Amino acid sequence: MQQQDLDNKLLKNLDIPGWNAMQQQAHQTIHKEKDVLLLAPTGSGKTLAFLKPVLQSLKENITEVQCLILVPSRELALQIEQVWKKMATGYKIGCFYGGHSMPSEIQSLTEPPAVLIGTPGRIADHLNRKTFITDFVTVLVLDEFDKSLALGFEEDMSSIISRLRKLKKRVLVSATTAVGIPDFTGVKQPEVLDFITNPVHTGDFSLKIVRSPEKDKINTLIQLLSFIGEESAIIFCNHRDATERTSELIREHGIENVCFHGGMEQLDREQSLIRFRNGTVYFLVATDLAARGLDIPEVKHIIHYHLPHTQEEFTHRNGRTARMHASGTAYMILHAEERVPSFVEEQPEELALPDKLKLPKPSEWTTVYISGGKKDKLNKIDIVGFFSKIGKLEKGELGMIEVKDFISFAAVKKNKVKDLLHKIKDEKMKGKKYKIAIAK
To answer: pTM here?
Structure first.
């Protein structure tokens, strides 16, 4: 396929108007160079920056794994998998991570994917079990590799890379400039694409201070959320227990929200992100785990409930808003004893909140859980058809649908969900009865 034809096909499948300047330069450099270090902010489109050259490297006549992508978290792995599937390349992709079913992963390798994404621990486990061969792996991508190192994956990564003896291309990706490249990567003198020090585009971003008269800032947070209203916001805390406490306190004040941190079970984390993505809740209370590598589009507001310790954390948090051409605002809630961190170069303006504000209205949507997914041969069209024909939902009453391997989720208007569940409770979808209920 000619270059222009490929571009047109991908842009159409992805439903985007074109590549940004960073992606264009990355496509050319990664396609041409052997070793590349890509540095670009969160939300700038790094995934598409390396996936297009990966696609161009694949050979149709090879039926084994050709590209290995190592990532620090299951969320980032799933995000990359989703982007690849939207590209509709015709090449199979695999997504392996801890907490996922090992037997189902091994079964999927009976027809190996051309592209395999995984966390270092899980991929190392597969290599130790000899579930797939590395003889045809010519491209290695280490996405957010600095985070993988920080999480203690160095030994697994080193072991994996030592077995990749046919590599022709290595791509290292990070959202921070303060990174050192370990020797075990085999990358000595990479072509460096630095779009952090020299950004190609910044959205309309503003930073504001909100003063709290009390050291316990919960009442000021309630005020700020009431001021924001029904728009998406991530509230960042520094610790897991503080995240849960803050989430519970604002819920007690009548504000719906979900919690997200590394100590939660995988399914609970996934459900929190799904409910936030599909508009069931407007507010996500999270640790810095949510600052990088998650598929959370169009977040309008970032709230630093706890101040980050470093400029890097501050940058990553703020990178969740004002993405691409969008606009967004970040707020630092400061009590009397707190000062603006030294790494904030310009003094932000102070936002004076009105005394009397109404609490944000709850979302009009709720999330419905379905006990079947891709492995049950279910897809979005099946769910839309079942909920429309049997459940009698009209257009506009069914929102975002996400289909996982063994479960699915759909956003449904709250005022329709009781009637929907009543109509479908004894019905089968594609000849099988599934448990369908409101997600918790």
So the answer is: 0.64
